[in-house]
Structures are given as structure tokens and as C-alpha cells.
Please model this.
Amino acid sequence: MDLKLTGKVVAITGGSEGIGYAMAEAFAKEGCQVAICSRSQAKLDKARAEFKEKGFDLYVRSVDVSDSDRLYGFVDEVKKDFGRIDIWINNTATTVVKSILELELEEWNQIMRTNLNSYFVGTQAAGRVMKEQGGGVIINVASFGGLMPPMYRSAYCTSKYGINGLTRMSAAEFAPFGIRVNAVAPGTINTAMQAAAGRSEEDVKRVAKNFALHRAGGGCQRGFVPGIPYVVLYRWSGAGVQRRKIPGTRLRYRMAAETIRKGDKSNVGNFGAYFGNCFSDYLCV
Model:
């Protein structure tokens, strides 16, 4: 399909695996020039090799996004090497599962540096580039935890609430410059972060019993991980003006959580598993 994205420059933080990798691949398939960063050089090398096998180029840089100077540098490198940044996606997160009474201050600070400060730095730096070039799109990967927070993730959920506010404020401030800022708030996704948070596969399955189709996103033929890129591509990258339908879903965009009306269950694998009230379009301008 032609979504009019050929040649666009897309930069994604945390793009070597999980949701970030899936978005990078989706944009590459649409003919975009894709740049990603991640802390692990080994994961970056693996991602680049996999993209090469599929016939795509992938620009990679090893960056710890909690180091603001290094993240500013990544923006500068992408701008220097590609000449512009059309779409910037903030997509990094870490978490610690502890009660507020047990959480160490440094654990709190590290989560804020990774989950929230990096979004500010990315938004500011990419915003400056986009203002100079006359426009662009910034997408923040937030979380359902920033809407309905689970227990023992106070720092993580606070950072995601902060992303919601940053999204609204930057959307309002950047609108006069032709820059659109939006956020997507996924529910429970079966990625490496679940294991990092101490959730076993059985834990994820137990949580998923609360979802419409009783399964978490990812790990299935038509799972969640491919779903986020479709929404980003169709709605927020600029392709949304074509108003193409996503099979089996109807997205209703408002200043709050999205609702999705399920159709034939055979067609809702991308979203229906857990998307009821899991998507947010905080301010679409």
C-alpha cells in the first residue's frame, strides 16, 4: 500500500526490539528512511542484519536515553546524516516493581530519566529541527498505566502520566509550527519488558483474562505488536488523512481513552485482544 511516506525520515528511540522494532519495520516497508537508537549495540547489530535480510537499510546508534547529552547528540547525528527529521517517536521505558515504601530514590530517578526526561529531550530537540524545516510529527509511546495505574509501579505510572501532560502541552505549543504531537497508550504487551518487570508468561496470561479476547498483545499470528505501527501509520504519521480502515476495528478519537467496537473476532487480532479503552489521542492538531 502507498501511504505517501516514501523518503520520509523516521527516528525511533528504543527501536531495537519490541514495539519500537515493529514500528521501525512498518515504516521501512512504506519506503521511509529509518533511524533507531538503543543501549545495546548487540541488539542494534542484530536488528540491522535482520532489516538487511528483508531488503531494508537501518541507521543505528548506541544511545542510553537517560543520558540527555547523548540523546541530544543522536538528534543532531540524524539531522546531519539525513538532512531532516519528519517523524520522531519517543519509545523507551523501564520499570521497577516495588511499593512506594520500598522504592529507592535512585530507582525513582532512573525511571524518570529514562521514561520521562528522555521524552522531553527528544520532543525538544526534534521539535527544534521540525520548526526549522517547517513541520513534522512527534509520537509518544505512553501506556495504559498512565490512565489506570497498576499496583507497585508508582514511578513507571507517574512517568506515563507525565508523558500525557507533555503530549498535550507540546501539541499546543508546536501547532503553529506545523508540528503534530500525539500519544498512543498500549495495554499489556508480551514484550521483554514484562519479564524485566518480573512477570512470567503465566502472570501475563492471568492479567489477560480481564481483556476482551482474554489474551495479551503480541505472541500470536495477528498480535498487538504489529497493531501499534498500523495506528501510527494510518492516523498520526500523516497517512491518517486517507482514513483507511483497520480490519475489524472502529477507532473513535476523542480527548480521552479510545474505545474500540469489535466486529468479527477473526478480524480483530491486531487490536481487540486488549484495546478496549487502551488507546489515547490526547490532542490531535
